[in-house]
Amino acid sequence: MNRFSTSPLFRLSSLLVLSAACCSTAVLAQPAPAAKGPAVFWAGDLDTNHDGRITPQEAAAVPAMAKNFAAIDTGHKGYITMSDVRAMWRTELTQRAQASVQGRMAAFAKADTKHEGKISLDEAKAAGMAFVVSNFKTFDTNNDGFVSKDEMQKGAVAIAQQMLAGRGREMQALFTKADTNKDGKLSQAEFTAAFPKFAPSFAFFDENHDGFIEPTEFALPPGL
Predict the structure, then answer these.
(1) What is the pLDDT of residue 37?
(2) Per-position DSSP letters for 28-79, written without gaps between them
(3) Which one of 119, 199, 211, 212 is CB 3.0 to 4.6 Å from 185, fit for a cystine?
(4) What are the pLDDT digits (tens) for 16-51?
(5) Main-chain phi, psi angles of 28, to 5 degrees
(6) Candidates 1.10.540, 1.10.238, 1.10.287, 3.40.1800; CATH matching 91-164
């Protein structure tokens, strides 16, 4: 377990996409919080009056949300908006990327049994570094037959950056597919048709309250 995956916002971000009916591997294996009515599927469901804001009273339905309310409400507004939730998701994704870099560097240190600051293909195989083994020439940028610590670091960072960029492309693709009339925004009907589980939270996404969801307002929870 790394220090990123144990941070409060990391755990909370995962908690807020819990659903009794959701089977995504990204969802934590724990029961939804006890409450009247449907299980909380994600943060937007807490906006029970559909005004685009989650107040402390609404957040109280999920103890973890209430406990971390001030940390999520970065502008100290007294309520949480979709922008706050998107920022929390960005933090989680960044932490995942950082954790992946740390994990690869830890594996490198373990494989470098001679403490030379570099590893051979055989050392990578012996350490079970399957990804490095299959992409050894990509990591070995100077083609000297070894992957140095610096090459490992740069390669791990590049992979993490690709992961983050991929998430952005994924959101763009989902938005484009949902925008059936290709006007660059999602009407409530388009949003509901494409993302029925999030349909009750349309007002939470529509932060400028113009009746449409713009690309800058759109994002879905990591792992869904």
Answers:
(1) 39
(2) -SSPPPP-SSSPP-SGGGG-TT-SS-B-HHHHTTSHHHHHTHHHH-TT--SS
(3) 212
(4) 544 323 333 233 233 334 444 344 457 888 999 999
(5) -65, 145
(6) 1.10.238
